[in-house]
C-alpha cells in the first residue's frame, strides 16, 4: 500500500511506485520470501518459505504529520535536537550522520528486545 503525498493532487501516479520518488511512500508491504539469489545470479528455492508484511510506525507518523521524510517527524526530531546540543552540529547539514545514528539506535533497540525476549521465554 502506498501513500501519495498531497502535493501531487488527484493525478494518476501509479508510474511513480517503486521509482524512488520522494512523493510516494510505501506504508504497508507484503513480501513473499521464496528464493535465495546465488552469487551467479540464479535463484534457489528456500527450504522454508515466509511471508513478511507490516507497516512501519515511522511511516504512518510521517503520513499523519504530513512530512516527506520519516526523520522529520516527532519520533526522531527530539533525538536530533539532543545530538545537536551535545555535538554542536546541525541536522540539516549532516543529514546522513543523523539518520545513521537513528538506524543504529533502532537496530540496538531491537537487539536488546530480542535478547530480553530470548532470555525470558526460552528457559
SSE topology sketch:
Blueprint: E1 2-4, E2 24-26, E3 29-37, E4 43-54, H1 57-64, H2 77-87, H3 95-121
Antiparallel strand pairs: 1-2, 3-4
Keywords for this structure?
single chain; 123 residues; alpha+beta; 2 domains; two-stranded antiparallel sheet; 4 strands
Q: In total, how many domains does the architecture comprise?
A: 2
- Unreliable sequence segments: none
How do the helices and strands follow one another from N- to C-terminus? Answer: EEEEHHH
Share of β-strand residues:
15-25%
- Average per-residue pLDDT, rounded, comes to 80
- Strand order in the sheet with the most strands: 1-2
Cα-atom radius of gyration = 19 Å
Number of E strands: 4
Let me know the largest β-sheet.
2 strands, antiparallel
Helix content: 25-40%
Terminal CA distance reads: 39 Å
Amino acid at each position: 500500500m502506498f501513500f501519495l503525498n498531497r502535493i501531487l493532487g488527484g493525478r494518476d501516479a501509479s508510474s511513480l511506485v517503486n521509482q524512488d520518488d520522494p512523493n510516494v511512500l510505501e506504508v504497508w508491504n507484503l513480501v513473499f520470501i521464496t528464493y535465495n539469489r546465488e552469487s551467479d545470479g540464479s535463484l534457489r528455492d528456500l527450504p522454508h518459505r515466509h511471508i513478511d508484511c507490516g507497516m512501519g510506525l515511522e511511516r504512518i507518523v510521517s503520513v499523519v504529520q504530513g512530512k516527506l521524510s520519516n526523520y522529520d517527524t516527532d519520533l526522531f526530531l527530539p533525538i536530533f535536537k539532543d545530538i545537536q546540543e551535545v555535538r554542536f552540529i546541525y541536522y540539516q547539514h549532516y543529514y546522513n550522520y543523523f539518520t545513521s545514528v537513528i538506524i543504529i539506535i533502532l537496530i540496538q533497540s531491537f537487539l536488546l528486545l530480542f535478547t530480553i525476549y530470548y532470555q525470558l521465554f526460552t528457559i
